[in-house]
Specification:
Number of domains: 2
CATH topology of the largest domain: TIM Barrel
CATH superfamily of the largest domain: Metal-dependent hydrolases
Distance between the termini: 70 Å
Number of helices: 16
Mean pLDDT: 93
Helix content: 40-55%
CATH architecture of the largest domain: Alpha-Beta Barrel
Low-confidence stretches: 9-20
Structural class: alpha/beta
Number of strands: 9
Strand content: 5-15%
Length: about 400
């Protein structure tokens, strides 16, 4: 009887501790201002006819799931590929996406609000509406024209990613510096590129160095007078891929007072995921597809479906964990401190995310994991949003 009473007490004790911890991380998450610096739903969902004001069964994002995830501030990525959608060019693509965001906000005034100043962001966060800002992903969208930089600013652009994967005539990308160096006319920023950075500082546009080549990165750090942002990048030392940032770059961002916002893409979080992806695509793809084509009696459509199933099954089996993502946050904190890291999910811009972070409703799990690792409430609030808010304050007019 005595042992039963002790066992019952232990069970009740652990349930009480677990329940208190659960309530504690939820309360902390609710009280924090959560900022995500990169989401691609405008190009991947809205332009495909999906209404993010509805509860969707596709993609990573919609207003219902954002609310469930406790998101307060979202930078909506304005993105177009190396080839423009509109015959008028990249700038027209950017304006089209910006207009689509404004239309969504106008249709949902009870759920969303637009901000262009730091004061507006601070005043409107935590008021039950998603504070929406614009980040333009890729300098190619200004089409080598300073006037178009000014125009996008007037339409609400609050950061410009100097390059996407494609280089411009004035800045070289990480992809080209790493994979196509012989095709580059120059590495880093040209004089015009430096003028762009100076003009961004004047206007109050954050310089975003995700996707930038190392030379472009260091040229921009040397030129800017304001803290920079890496809106969706992770740690090279954990996962050595061209899109991630090395230790010396992390230190340079900290010295500048900027913030590196961790990208959720599985291939930027896990070295093993990236290696398997490379192996499947570059080593075994042709031979496996020949086998599958034979099994499909020469029907290429059936073969492609089988390959897709085989590929997805192989990659899903090695998706990284939530803990592996938080390892990237940990790494930056241990290297330079807790003031220089944030959240830049790249939701709806990536094909795979860590287990447990399947969509925008799952942000609280990051808070829970940080708390489990012993992070203070103050540090967690900095990581979730206060660090990025500081960069906004230093840049915005």
């Amino acid at each position: 009887m005595k042992m039963n009473r002790i066992s019952s007490f232990c069970i009740l004790f652990f349930l009480g501790v677990f329940g208190a911890q659960s309530q504690s991380f939820k309360k902390l998450h609710e009280n924090a201002i959560l900022v995500d610096t990169h989401n691609d739903c405008l190009s991947s969902l809205t332009l495909e006819g999906k209404d993010i004001a509805s509860k969707l069964t596709v993609g990573h994002s919609d207003l219902y799931r954002w609310k469930k995830g406790g998101l307060d501030v979202q930078f909506f990525s304005i993105w177009t590929d190396k080839t423009s959608r509109n015959k008028e060019g990249f700038y027209k693509d950017a304006v089209e996406e910006i207009d689509s965001l404004h239309h969504i906000i106008l249709r949902n005034p009870d759920k969303m609000t637009f901000a262009t100043t730091y004061r507006e962001v601070k005043k409107r966060a935590h008021k039950g509406k998603l504070v929406s800002l614009i980040g333009v992903e890729g300098g190619h969208m200004i089409e080598e024209d300073m006037a178009k930089l000014d125009s996008l600013y007037s339409k609400g652009m609050k950061y410009l990613t100097l390059t996407w994967n494609n280089s411009t005539g004035w800045a070289s990308s990480a992809m080209d510096e790493t994979l196509n160096p012989d095709k580059l006319k120059q590495k880093g920023l040209t004089e015009f590129g430096k003028q762009i950075v100076r003009r961004m500082n004047e206007l109050g546009i954050i310089v975003d160095l995700s996707h930038a080549g190392e030379q472009t990165f260091y040229d921009a750090i040397a030129e800017t007078k304001k803290p920079v942002l890496l809106s969706h990048s992770s740690v090279w030392s954990i996962c050595p891929v061209f899109r991630n940032v090395k230790d010396e770059q992390i230190k340079a961002v900290a010295k500048n007072g900027g913030v590196i916002c961790i990208n959720f893409y599985s291939g930027f979080i896990s070295k093993e995921y990236d290696q398997r992806q490379s192996f499947l695509n570059n080593v075994v793809k042709d031979s496996v597809q020949r086998i599958l084509l034979n099994e499909s009696k020469g029907d290429s459509i059936i073969m492609k479906k089988k390959w897709a199933h085989f590929y997805d099954s192989s990659m899903n089996a090695i998706r990284p964990s939530l803990a592996q993502l938080v390892d990237h946050i940990d790494y930056i904190v241990k290297l330079v401190g807790d003031s220089y890291v944030g959240i830049g999910s790249d939701y709806d811009g990536v094909s795979s995310v860590p287990v447990g972070l399947e969509d925008v409703s799952t942000y609280p799990k990051i808070t829970e994991e940080l708390m489990r690792r012993g992070y203070s409430n103050r540090s967690i609030k900095k990581i979730l949003g206060n660090n990025v808010l500081r960069v906004m304050k230093a840049n915005f007019k």
